[in-house]
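Lecture 7 notes: from sequence to structure.

We start with a single chain of 237 residues. Read the sequence below before looking at the structure.
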Amino acid sequence: MSRESKDIKILLAEDDINLGFLLVDFLEGNGYEVKLYRDGLSALKGFSAYRSDFCILDIMLPEMDGFSLAAAIREQNREVPVIFLSARSMKEDKIRGFRIGVDDYITKPFDEEELLCRIEAILHRTGPGNGNGNSPATIAIGKYLFDPANQMLSLGDISHRLTLKESSVLCKLSLAKNQLVRRDDIMTDVWGEADYYKGRSLDVFISKIRNYLKEDPSVKITTVPTVGYILEEKNIF
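Now the structure, written as tokens:
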């Protein structure tokens, strides 16, 4: 049993009953508690009724498809890790999933050990106490104050709580103000690997962060094409 599995409750939405039972047996054998649902609506009700620490969702579910289910889960909880399992391997499906905010997308057929490793990697990055202990309590970004530990970005009396990934991306940029931060380094630190799909997801997060910082014209995020980003902070007189 890995240390990540202790007391972790997994919601599994899978309409293939044979695969569902195999995954339940495998994950419970590795110390996880698993609740299996065979359609999207019952999975959403289960997520609302019981605390889940991790979600594994098929896309082609009856009653409510995996995309709609993931979006509904994200409306209730922006932080719970979500993995898609799907026989659909089209690029558009993967991009759509990452835009919803899922943490990983695994194409069927897959190796159970690979799934386990991906679960543990995500938990290692997102679990309590896995933040950067060297980060300062607050970081000044122009007129903003950024509190990485509490995922809070403030401007005067107005505060906005970021998601864990938004906070992680902004932390890497703000700790290297006016310096280039490479795309691959951000993806590896935040998502665990650098590939095309994580890159598209990163682009979405950068766009969101730019929107959060738009009230201060002295701050901007500059894109260095194919290389990375620079969080620029300039004095405006």
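Residues 91 and 197 are 8 Å apart (CA to CA). Keep this in mind for problem set 3.
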